[in-house]
């Protein structure tokens, strides 16, 4: 397993390089000019200097190489500098200045380092989208397990009905619906997420929890619908296998048969679904974050696309690609943990 993991990590390097080249070339073909938002009163020579400062006057291969160096070499140095200066975990180490004076990936829209903006937006996304993903998984797994065990029962039919609703209704409709019902008519929850709110005590935590309920409800519905259906199908495939009948014939308790033997084998395909959904947590939910005014990664990507901010768009999309490759590897490794018969040697 260790040899397989190392081999996959090595093979992921050319894969990610190829993905970065494709993303860069596609964005270069996108129409628009980042200097279009500059006021007309700015002299042409000043505009030209601004274009050179943004790297727009250089060949495509030079721009790509500079972005590659900044992303893989300079940004990790910034992370090291931050860890030794502000991190509680590594704050005892001597302060480093590895990235001082070096050119970083700069957003064309805000004229500030891209990764600094991403780090600022990430907590809001993890609060809302991450929590909705966890809630969706915790609800979906028991529903899928019990629906399969009680196939065609009233509970199974109700779970199927709710799942079809979750699959069919898009977030821009369900989001508006819950805002109208629970915020406008009932007044139970706020319709706008306050990104400036800071949790310092129990009272502020309740306020944070209250404003998270609506967006988490909208996103968790989709996660629950998807994973519960996969869980149900996987459990049904395993409940009719010979090893289940053998375990029951040996006199094992039904709870042991279902929750130990059947569940462990059924979780193998579910791991793929859950692992591949994790990058979407970091990517944010563009529609839901925009609808509830959550100042997260999804809304950041949307505004960067509208502003033609190519460094921001490329950095965010490449981070998503890295997460997808990483969690594919994690899913494969977990296969071997859940099923000892799976070996990659």
Can you walk me through this structure?
The chain is an all-alpha fold. The protein has a domain at 118-338: MetI-like fold (Orthogonal Bundle), CATH 1.10.3720. It is built from 12 helices and no strands. Helix 4 runs antiparallel to helix 9. It starts with a helix and ends in a 7-residue tail after the last helix.
Please provide a brief summary of the model.
Helix content is 72%, strand content 0%. The protein is an all-alpha fold and 345 residues long.
Give the SSE string.
HHHHHHHHHHHH
Rg result? 24 Å
Percent in strands = under 5%
- Biggest sheet details: none
Protein name: ABC transporter substrate-binding protein
GO cellular component, one term: plasma membrane
Keywords: Cell membrane, Membrane, Transmembrane, Transmembrane helix, Transport
Transmembrane segments: 9-30, 125-149, 161-189, 209-227, 270-292, 312-338
Strand and helix layout:
Blueprint: H1 2-28, H2 44-53, H3 60-85, H4 114-149, H5 154-168, H6 171-185, H7 202-239, H8 242-249, H9 254-283, H10 286-291, H11 297-306, H12 310-338
Helix pairs in contact: 1-12, 4-5, 4-7, 4-9, 5-7, 6-7, 7-9, 9-12, 11-12
């Amino acid at each position: 397993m260790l040899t397989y993991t190392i081999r996959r990590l090595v093979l992921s390097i050319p894969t990610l390089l190829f993905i970065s080249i494709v993303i860069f070339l596609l964005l270069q073909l996108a129409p628009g000019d980042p200097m279009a938002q500059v006021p007309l009163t700015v002299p042409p020579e000043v505009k030209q200097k601004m274009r050179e400062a943004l790297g727009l006057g250089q060949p495509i291969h030079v721009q790509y190489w500079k972005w590659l160096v900044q992303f893989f070499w300079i940004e990790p140095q910034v992370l090291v500098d931050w860890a030794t200066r502000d991190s509680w975990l590594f704050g005892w180490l001597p302060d480093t200045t590895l990235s001082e004076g070096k050119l970083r990936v700069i957003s064309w829209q805000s004229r500030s380092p891209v990764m600094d903006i991403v780090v600022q937006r990430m907590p809001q996304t993890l609060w809302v989208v991450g929590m909705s993903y966890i809630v969706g998984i915790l609800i979906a797994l028991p529903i899928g397990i019990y629906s399969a065990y009680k196939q065609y029962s009233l509970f199974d039919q109700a779970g199927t009905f709710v799942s079809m609703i979750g699959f069919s209704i898009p977030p821009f409709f369900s989001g508006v619906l819950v805002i109208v019902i629970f915020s406008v008519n009932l007044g139970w929850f706020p319709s706008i997420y306050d990104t400036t709110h800071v949790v310092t005590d129990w009272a502020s935590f309740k306020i944070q929890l209250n404003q998270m309920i609506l967006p988490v409800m909208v996103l968790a519905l989709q996660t629950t619908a998807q994973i519960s259906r996969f869980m149900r199908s996987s459990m049904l495939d395993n409940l009719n296998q010979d090893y289940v009948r053998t375990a029951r014939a040996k006199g094992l308790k039904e709870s042991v048969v279902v929750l130990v033997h059947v569940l462990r084998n059924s979780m193998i395909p579910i791991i793929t679904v859950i692992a591949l959904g994790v990058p979407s947590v970091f990517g944010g939910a563009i529609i839901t974050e925009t609808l509830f005014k959550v100042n997260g990664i999804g809304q950041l990507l949307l505004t960067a696309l509208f502003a033609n901010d190519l460094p921001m768009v490329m950095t965010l999309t490449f981070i998503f690609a890295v997460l997808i490759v990483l969690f594919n590897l994690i899913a494969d490794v977990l296969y071997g943990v859940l099923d000892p018969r799976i070996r990659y040697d």
